[in-house]
Design goal:
112 residues, 1 helix, 47% strand
């Protein structure tokens, strides 16, 4: 089965977070040694928001529901390159009338 791509435009101005997986050992004399925890010790997460019609938001919701928080999808973050991401949950928002929004956090992963 092919890996799907998240194609909806997200709200600009979102702030991502880049983290490094590091193991650190502290010694009694104040010395500290750190090493990267794995081959992919740099990862990022992005809170995203999409606002649109009820039908578009429901399509986005269906995309995330298909992936169930466990299956990775392709997405290109701001300032980034196409990569694999997962979404553990989302928040649907009623903006009034037929306008809805969906907020979520995409977390980088390194396997489908």
């Amino acid at each position: 089965m092919a890996i799907e791509t998240f194609t909806w435009p997200v709200q600009s101005g979102e702030q991502g977070e880049v983290t490094f997986a590091v193991r650190t050992k502290k010694f009694g004399d104040g010395y500290e040694q750190s090493v990267g925890e794995s081959l992919n010790n740099r990862s990022q997460s992005w809170p995203i928001t999409y606002t649109g019609t009820k039908e578009r938001v429901k399509a986005m919701q269906a995309f995330l529901d298909r992936h169930k928080g466990t299956k990775a999808f392709l997405w290109t973050p701001p300032l980034g390159e196409l990569g694999l991401y997962k979404c553990a949950g989302y928040q649907p928002i009623n903006r009034g009338g037929r306008i809805y929004a969906l907020a979520a956090t995409f977390t980088q992963t390194f396997h489908p």
